[in-house]
Write a structure and sequence with these properties.
By secondary structure, this protein is of the alpha+beta class. It has helices spanning about 10-20, 30-40, 40-60, 125-190, 195-230, 260-280, 330-395, 400-435, and strands spanning about 1-5, 25, 65-75, 80-85, 100-105, 110-120, 240, 245-250, 285-300, 305-320.
Length: about 450
């Protein structure tokens, strides 16, 4: 049930104070959030990171496709390579253990070929693809967390502006009452029914209210500019907010959509997948390869100069099985197991902490909601007492001191009311964050 927590006189002052800015657009909280979701630079960076993760996933999957390379090479030997040949090749009577150096080949060598490789089975590669899928889900959750952060930042700034606007409305109302009181005191002083010090007391109170109003206006402008920054709009744009505060006495569901808990679980899945990938590096891999090309030999001396090409091609299957790498793989497995234990413990701690914070925030929201209702009644009662005391002053049955005391009580009730509203907003946002119950319209 919607509860309107404004007093009619305060609402009237707020509406009157907003009529001076006719050209400014009035944004609701949801409109501010929608604008931020489109223009906020942090969100744009988060979306780009998500696209990077998707491209990395496609990059890993591309390793399953055949690879085709074109190679070309030209060599000119200024000194032909030597080979040692048994001396018996040139002299049949020579001993077997004697050798003779000989140069083979021609100066010009040309090679051009196409090489094809096709992975047939690679367990580590398949697991890497599964890992990148988990990484994509993690990047998506990170984007959602950034959206959530923007949601809460914008909501918090918007609520602050509403509180400041209502503080200004209270001060405007108090200034009007103080001005009337000052005029009455001046009239009484002119009739020798009040002291000059009484007039000075009311004038001092008026100056204090005017100073508070100037400070609030400056603070309101600062918070409004910060809101524009999060919304991603220019600071020169005229923006107004809805000053009418509304609250719902409604509790969020259990914390099953908490982004931090989902991120923690996803990190566990990622570490588990990385551990499997390291273990699968011990499994043999099988691939198909082949080559087709030509080899050219040339000689550039007369009269036997020539350049001849000869075809070359082959195909085969390669089996690769890692036998021993100095226990490096086992060390990586041990590290990853410890990391998995840590992220699991962190997830359990975060879950327990979230349950505790959710219970506290839920209780705080209930208490603060009731406090707002009580503060509203106290505010109305304090205003009634002030008006009665002011009437008694006119009738001569109350002193100025009693009026000022009633006025201070009234203003204190105003501050208590706003403090209760702030506590409710804080508890409401905290509970939404803990339970993952926030509304984002894309």
């Amino acid at each position: 049930m919607l509860v309107n927590i404004h007093i009619h006189k305060i609402l009237l002052l707020v509406l009157l104070s907003s009529t001076g800015i006719a050209n400014a657009q009035t944004y609701s909280l949801q409109q501010c959030i929608d604008t931020a979701l489109i223009n906020n630079k942090k969100l744009q960076i988060s979306r780009n990171n998500q696209q990077i993760s998707e491209q990395k996933s496609k990059e890993v999957k591309a390793n399953l496709l055949p690879k085709l390379d074109a190679n070309a090479e030209y060599k000119y030997y200024t000194d032909l390579p030597y080979q040692l040949m048994p001396l018996s090749t040139f002299n049949p009577t020579a001993p077997e253990w004697q050798f003779k150096e000989a140069q083979f080949g021609v100066p010009h060598n040309i090679n051009a070929n196409l090489q094809l490789s096709v992975p047939l089975y690679n367990a580590q590669l398949y697991n890497n693809i599964a890992t990148t899928k988990i990484a994509n889900q993690l990047a998506d959750l990170q984007k959602q967390k950034t959206e959530e952060q923007v949601f809460f930042e914008v909501s918090n700034l918007y609520y602050n502006l509403q509180i400041l606007a209502n503080q200004q409305a209270f001060i405007d109302s108090n200034l009007q009452k103080t001005s009337k009181l000052l005029n009455n005191m001046k009239l009484l002083h002119s009739q020798l029914l009040a002291k000059a010090t009484d007039v000075s007391k009311v004038e001092l109170q008026q100056l204090q209210l005017q100073t508070q109003k100037q400070l609030l206006e400056s603070k309101f402008e600062q918070v409004l500019n910060t809101l524009k920054l999060f919304m991603g709009i220019e600071l020169t744009r005229e923006v107004q907010i809805e000053k009418n505060i509304q609250m719902k006495e409604q509790l969020e569901s259990s914390a099953n959509n908490n982004i931090d808990l989902l991120l923690a679980q996803q990190r566990i899945n990622l570490v588990e997948s990385e551990l499997k990938s390291i273990k699968h590096s011990r499994i043999p891999s099988l691939s198909l390869f082949g080559m087709y090309g030509t080899t050219g030999f040339g000689y550039d001396k007369q009269p036997n100069d020539f350049l001849n090409f000869y075809p070359i091609s082959f195909a085969g299957i390669r089996l690769q099985y890692p036998l021993f790498n100095g226990l490096a793989t086992q060390r990586k497995i041990n590290q990853k197991k410890i990391e998995l234990t840590n992220v699991s413990l962190e997830a359990e701690w975060l879950k327990d902490q979230t349950n505790l914070q959710t219970t506290n925030a839920s209780n705080e929201k209930i208490v603060s909601f009731q406090s707002v209702k009580n503060a509203e009644k106290q505010l109305a009662l304090a205003e009634k007492v002030y008006m009665q005391t002011l009437l008694q002053l006119k009738e001569g049955t109350a002193s100025l001191t009693e009026v000022l005391l009633a006025d201070n009580t009234f203003r204190e009730s105003q501050q208590n009311y706003l403090a209760a509203v702030i506590a409710y907003f804080k508890a409401d946002l905290e509970l939404k964050k803990l339970t993952g119950n926030f509304t984002i319209k894309n």
